[in-house]
Amino acid sequence: MAPSEVKHLMKRFYQTEWQGIQFDSFAKLSTDQLADAAFYNAFYRELFKRYGASVIRSGMGLAKDLLMQLGLYRPGQFWGWIRTRSDYHKLMEKARFNSIEDGFITPAEKQNYFIIGR
Question: Are 33 and 55 in contact, with CB atoms under 8 Å apart?
Fold first, then answer.
């Protein structure tokens, strides 16, 4: 089959949204041009504005699961900075700390989480 014949057999498909985000809400859509870096920057800016850290957490969770399946990761301090407050409490309980105190120290520039176990 000649390339010109194959072209006529293929059906074009254009996605107009993903994760509930309409592409035309932040970009001019085109059937002639592929998405460029400006499109992806605008899309991910909107994605993180809507879903925030939960997107990062779920992506990292999938990455951890995949790495565990491949035998390349054992649970521990891997991307530990993204753990939730509940995760830290569970770790402290697993380490047999009965009295746990935690909270946030909030200077003007950023929040810092602390946890103490006895």
Answer: no
Tracing tokens 């939960």 back to the chain, one arrives at 54
Contact 20, 47 (CB under 8 A): no
Helix (H) or strand (E) holding 115: strand 112-117
At 59, list the tokens: 């992506």
CB distance 45 to 62 below 8 Å: no
Alpha-carbon torsion 68, 73, 76, 81, what sign? negative
9-18 pLDDT tens trace: 667 777 888 8
d(CA 86, CA 92): 10
**pLDDT tens digits for 45-103?**
888 888 776 666 677 777 877 888 887 776 655 454 567 888 889 989 999 998 999 98
The alpha-carbon radius of gyration of the chain (Å, integer) is 23
